Amino acid sequence: MRYARDDPGDDRIATFDIETTATDPADGELVSVGVGIHDRADPLTDATYETFHREDGEASLVDRAMTHLAAADADTLVTYNGVEFDLPFVEGRLDRLDADVDLPAIASQPGHLDLFLDRKRRADETGEKWPSLEACLESYGHAPPQTVWRGAPLTNGRFGEELGPAYLRTLGTETGARFRASLAEVVDHYLIGDLEATLALYYADLGESVEGAYLGTERRFD
């Protein structure tokens, strides 16, 4: 689904995304958080991405990622379903852990633009299915990046059921460190692909055509 937006003229754009073992913070855990930063004067291929993975607790993971996001000093934060999923999940996990981690001001309105909310509203009005990030990209002619793990495309469902739990099982063991590093490579590709896809969708909504390092690519992992 396309959604035309007026250009706010922001120069520095941030995005973030989370990877979890379930969609409900009562049932799942945070595995990784990714943060992307792009200066609009540069090609999208020059965007920088940082991924943060569980090393000890979830609160530490959130703190590291949010500190990086705050330090980026971006003009706006764009997400895809960040308002109704990513942020509530993060806050839900912090509440359950009774952990106090401050989220940066840009994560709240008016600094945060969720590219999904307007599309969800339009879909509800027209009786359409809520569009995925991938479907929105394809509506603009962009091919979403694809991560293939163990012979099949990695999806949110497979991440929550297979990859995320596999990564968490390596924590706290010396023998798991090597396996954890190989799994982190898979998570990195999947997570950064989503971050770049979100930035590309933001620019497409503004009427800009961009080329990315991950869009239209596929990487395979055993």
Automatic annotation (TrEMBL):
A Pfam cross-reference name: RNase_H_2
Organism: Haloplanus rubicundus
Protein name, entry field: YprB ribonuclease H-like domain-containing protein
SUPFAM superfamilies the UniProt entry points to: Ribonuclease H-like
Span of domain YprB ribonuclease H-like: 16-117
Gene3D superfamilies xref list: Ribonuclease H-like superfamily/Ribonuclease H
GO molecular function, one term: nucleic acid binding
InterPro entries named among the record's database cross-references: RNaseH-like_sf, RNaseH_sf, YprB_RNase_H-like_dom
